[in-house]
Design brief:
By secondary structure, the protein is an alpha+beta fold. About 35% of the residues lie in helices and about 25% in strands. α2 packs antiparallel against α4. It is globular, with a radius of gyration of 21 Å.
Length: about 130
Amino acid sequence: MNRKTFITTASLLSVSAVAAPTSLMQKSKLQHQVYFWLKNPQSTADRDKLIAGIRTLRGIETVRELHIGVPASTEKREVVDNSFSVSELMIFDDVEGQNIYQEHPIHKKFVEECSSLWTKVIVYDSAMV
């Protein structure tokens, strides 16, 4: 193989690797973002109980990271929704890890013990790129 053929072939391979479908690439980590609206949003006791419940989810073996938050005092803009009471962000290695989390006894216990605290929950699951 001469130099020109090698460079042309290498260029084509690198372009096809970038354009390869996700299914051919390494599994994507999964972000699981959850937003909770408390029934009693002014109750610090309810908020603290929910946060304590969320912390128990760290005990699930497939949870790689867990971050808990409350609305920040950022600039009020039309695109910012800070109406929620508590948020959580979890990272999983893959969809299978998130599926294990959903059926795990610790998660089921959390829902059983804390679901009476909230009126609304929204979940955003994203494959990390």
